[in-house]
Amino acid sequence: MNGNLASPEEPRTEKLNGRLFLMSPSPSINHNRVAGNIFNAFHNYLKGKTCEAFGDGADVYLTEHDTVIPDIFIVCQKDIIQPDGIHGAPDLIVEVLSPSTAKNDKGYKKDLYESTGVKEYWIADPNMRSIEVYLLSNGKYSLDEIYALFPDGFGITEQEKAGTKKEIPVSMYPDFSIPLKEIFHNLF
């Protein structure tokens, strides 16, 4: 199984706990826009720095029984980057939810990323315009924050809306944060 070397006819799969799971053949436009916006922010910020951003398509070999294809991720340890994929835990992973992947992204994969040492995990929900950020501390994830844009009519007051955080900090870099409006720009 190798997402990078699969032929166009061969479906992309992830291996979770030894079981193969088909990847969505064509994610929604909103999924692609959110993933692209986050990747672009990571890629632009990391130019000339030690860490590198990767978009969907690279296999990440985490354990003998677990190979994933995250939507976006950052790797700072150059020695885990190999021609066929990433062999080890990225520093940050972002999964953009799709109806077919949400259960695994919020369940098994979250636990897998925690147990293999992924320092920061984002779960982006294009429909809710929200991102949950989990940070690893002492081998366990804790929910750092839920960032969300609230459309008019959502049921919160203007004062509550004004008090929400409008940018997501990337914990690895104290001077790097991404405005939510950039992440959720141009969605249906």
Largest sheet: 6 strands, mixed
Q: Please provide the ordered H/E string of secondary-structure elements.
A: EEHEEEEEEEHHEEEHEEH
State the secondary-structure class.
Answer: alpha+beta
Instruction: Tell me how many strands there are.
Output: 14
* Distance between the ends: 34 Å
Radius of gyration: 16 Å
Backbone shape? globular
Number of helices: 5
Strand content: 25-35%
Strand order of the largest sheet: 3-6-9-10-11-12
In terms of per-residue confidence, which ranges show pLDDT below 50 for 5 or more consecutive residues? 1-7
> Residue-averaged pLDDT, rounded?
91
Helix content: 10-25%
Can you put this structure into words, describing what you see?
This protein is of the alpha+beta class. It has 5 helices and 14 strands. The protein has helices at residues 29-46, 102-106, 108-116, 158-162, 180-183; strands at residues 13-16, 19-22, 52-55, 60-63, 66-68, 72-75, 81-82, 85-87, 92-96, 120-125, 130-137, 140-148, 167-169, 177-179. The chain has a 6-stranded mixed sheet. It has a 4-stranded mixed sheet with strand order 5-4-8-7, with helices on one face. The protein is globular, with a radius of gyration of 16 Å. Mean pLDDT is 91; it is low at 1-7.
Please write out the topology.
Elements: E1 13-16, E2 19-22, H1 29-46, E3 52-55, E4 60-63, E5 66-68, E6 72-75, E7 81-82, E8 85-87, E9 92-96, H2 102-106, H3 108-116, E10 120-125, E11 130-137, E12 140-148, H4 158-162, E13 167-169, E14 177-179, H5 180-183
Parallel strand pairs: 4-8, 9-10
Antiparallel strand pairs: 1-2, 3-6, 4-5, 6-9, 7-8, 10-11, 11-12, 13-14
